[in-house]
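README, section 4: Worked example with a bound small molecule

Sections 1 through 3 covered apo chains. Here we extend the same pipeline to holo records, where the ligand is supplied as SMILES alongside the sequence. The molecule in this example is 2'-deoxycytidine-5'-triphosphate. Nothing else about the input changes; the structure line simply encodes the ligand pose together with the chain.
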Amino acid sequence: MDVPEDQRARRLFGGGAMAPGNLAASPFRVDRDRIVSSPHFARLGGVTQVISPGGSGLLVHNRLTHSLKVAQVARAITERLTADPRYRDLLGKLGGCDADVVEAAALAHDLGHPPFGHLGERILDTVARQRFSLPDGFEGNAQSYRIVTSTEIRGETIGLDLTAAVRAAMLKYPWTRHTYPQPHVRFLDPPPRGASPPPGDPTRGSAKFGAYVTELNDLRQAREPFRGRLADWQQTVEASVMDTADDIAYAIHDVEDFHRVGVLQQGSVATELMAWQRDADELRALPDATVDATARRPGRSVEQLRRTLRRKDSWIACDDAFRAAVEHVRLELVDGLLAAPFDGSIEAEQGVARFSARWTRRLIDAIEVRPDPPVRSGHVLLGQAQWHEVQVLKFVHHRFVLARPDLALHQRGQARSIELLVEALHDWLVDPEETARLPRRIHDLVELSEAEMAGLVDDPATLGLITRPTRAELTAMARGRAIIDFVASLTDGQAVALLDALSGRSRQLWTDSFVL
Ligand SMILES: Nc1ccn([C@H]2C[C@H](O)[C@@H](COP(=O)(O)OP(=O)(O)OP(=O)(O)O)O2)c(=O)n1
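The generated complex, written as C-alpha cells:
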C-alpha cells in the first residue's frame, strides 16, 4: 500500500498548499529549488571537503561540488530502482522513493558542515558541550536539519518549510543525541551505524545524530508518514539512497582529488596493497596487538582494515570478497589511475574522467533494496563485492591522505582558529558596551535559541539536563548556541578573515569577505 502523496508532501507550517513563489509543479521539486536558492547552499563552495577550497584552486572538491555529485548519483540510483519491477511493491510499502525527494535531500545533506569540514565539526562539538554546557553539542547532520527547519529564513515562516518526505530523507541518523527514540538507539544490540557513543566516552550520547532536541517535534512530524512502515531508528528509503550516494561519491572523488594534486603516489599505495596480498596468510595469524604495534610496516594497515570490517560489519564482511576487492582496487589504482602522475594534460584529464565514470557506473549498478536489512544497514545498499571495494578505496584515502603529518599540522592550526573565533565572538556578545553594535544576525540567533529553549524548560530531561535551568543558565545556553550557529554558517575564508579582524591582525575595513 502506498503512502498517500499528501502526507509525504505535508509542510511544517503550510499544510500541502503551494506558495506563490513556487515555480515547480511537484512539491518536492519546490523543495529542491528552495534549497539551491538558499545562501547556505552557495556558501558550501567555500567549505572544506578534505582540504580548504582556497588553497587548492580548481583541483579538489569542496562541499558544494561534492553535494552536486551526491545529488547526481542519488538521482541515478533512484531512477534505476524505480524502473526495476522487482522493487516496485517493496518501495511503495516502505514509504516511497521519489527522484526529486532524494535530489533535494542530497543537495541539503551537508548544509550544516562548518568551516574546515569534519575538523570544525569536532571542535565546535567540544566547545558547545564544554564551554557552553549544551548537552546536544554540535553535529554536522543535526546542523543541516536545524538550518532547513529553523535558522534559514524564507518568507514569513522560519526555516525553509520543506515537505515531510524531504526532511525525513535528510535524516541519515533519525534520532537525537541522548533521548529520542526511547529506548535510545545507542542501547540497541547491535546499535545502528553512528548510534554508539564516540570511543572512550559513554556519557556523550550517540556519535552521530540527525537533530538537536530543539528540532525534535519537527523530526517527529517528518517521520509521521513512515510510522508503522519503518522502525523509529531506520532511515527512510530516500535517506538510505542519499547516504549510499554520499559514500559512493566521496569514495571516488577523494582518490581523484589527491591524484590531481600529486599527494596520492603510486609507489606507496602499491607497496601497502601488494605487501598485504603477499603476506595475507601470515598476517592473519598474528594477534591484534602485534598488528597494531607494527602498523607502519607495509601490509599491516590493510590487515587492520580487514579486522575492523569483520568486527564491526560481520553482517557483510567476508575474507574472499575482501581479497578480491584489494586486487580490484590495486589493478584500478596502481596499474590504472596512478600509473602516470597527473600533469594537467588532456590525456591526464581523460584518465581521471574514465576512472570516475567506470567506478560510478559500477557502484550504481550494484545497488540493492532489501525488505529486512541488518541493523547496521539501510534498506538500500551496495552488493557485497562493491561494498568491500568502497571500503578499500576509503582506506587508501585515509591511509595516504588523511594520516599525513603535514595535513595534521595544518589542521591543528585550523582547530585553534575555530576555538579562538568562538571565544572572541562570545566576548563581543557579552560585552555590555557593545550591545548596540553587535551584528544583527547574532542578536536574532540568540532570540531564536532563547525562544526554542524556553519552550523546553519544563522538560529538562529532553534538554539533556537534570534540573530545570535558571533564567541565567538558559540565556547562557542560548548565547552559546547562537555563536555556534553563527560560526557554523561561515565559509573557511570568512572564518579566517573574521578571526584576523577580531584579533587586530586585519588592516582592511568594509571589504566583502563577510557581512555583519
Ligand atoms: N577525519 C575525516 C573524516 C572524513 N573526511 C572527509 C572524507 C570524505 O570526503 C568526507 C566524508 O565525510 P562526510 O561528511 O561526507 O560523510 P560521512 O558519511 O563520513 O559522515 P556523515 O554521515 O556524518 O555525513 O569527509 C575528512 O576529511 N577527515
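What to look for in the output: Residues 405-430 form the longest helix (26 residues). The first strand starts at residue 153 and ends at 154.

Section 5 describes how to batch many such records.
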